[in-house]
Amino acid sequence: MKCEVLGDTAFPLVRVELQRGESIKAESGAMVAMSTNLKLTGKADGGVGKAITRMFTGESFFMQNIEAENGPGWVLLASATPGETTAVEIREGQDLRVQKGGFLACTPGVDVGMKTQGIGKGLFSGEGFFIVNISGKGTVFLSTYGSIYPLELKAGETVHVDNGHLVAWDASMRYEIVKGASGWLSSATSGEGLGCRFEGPGRIYIQTRNPVSLGAWLFPFLPLQRQAG
């Protein structure tokens, strides 16, 4: 199997070349084009129970399974939102937690599941009570709003990440919810609100654009708002 990301950072494609008997899993609706000898099916990956839990994380019930059943072929995959797509290697015992909508595709050895968070983190982390958990061994493709940037933290090193810019982080990392500024008033007036304070060692992936900020910017231009004005 050969995977590569094509195009610019705003509207990339993932091209996957499959040999006979190989397959790749992708989020529902991710397939853009593929050679006609490949077989695409919708599957409740991991069974119905796991598929239902994935829905709580914002992912779809069914996943695409694209297989080179009768011979080699290729497939192009893309995210529904504009932004970068990045390949991340997953190792046994080193799970990765991913924001809602951040998963695009993965190799067969990777499992896409769900983990729960505590009440405090679920309410204030921006991710909700249920988050995507990537485990197993292989490659996962993450899609982001804007470009993606990795942060590698050493043991004892800490970093503050705005909730809206958080994409993924190592499951082994400790983190807590903190104010965005020195006080609650400053947090509100600065536009930062709440964030996550991570402690290394581990890796964090952040995105350069914030979808919440985009929604706030678009809100005054919505037809309903113009009519109300």
Description:
With 229 residues, the chain is of the alpha+beta class. It has one domain: Double-stranded beta-helix. It has 5 helices and 19 strands. Strands 5-6-3-10-13-8 form a 6-stranded antiparallel beta sheet, with no helix packed on it. β1 (2-6) and β2 (13-18) form a beta hairpin. The longest helix is centred in the N-terminal third of the chain and has 9 residues, at 48-56. The radius of gyration is 19 Å and the shape is globular.
Keywords:
229 residues, alpha+beta, Double-stranded beta-helix, six-stranded antiparallel sheet, 5 helices, 45% strand
Write the layout of secondary structure elements.
Elements: E1 2-6, E2 13-18, E3 23-27, E4 31-34, E5 39-43, H1 48-56, E6 63-67, E7 73-77, E8 85-90, E9 96-98, E10 103-106, E11 110-116, H2 119-124, E12 130-136, E13 138-143, E14 148-153, E15 158-162, E16 166-170, E17 174-179, H3 184-190, E18 194-199, E19 202-207, H4 211-218, H5 223-228
Antiparallel strand pairs: 1-2, 2-7, 3-6, 3-10, 4-7, 5-6, 8-13, 9-12, 9-16, 10-13, 11-12, 14-19, 15-18, 16-19, 17-18
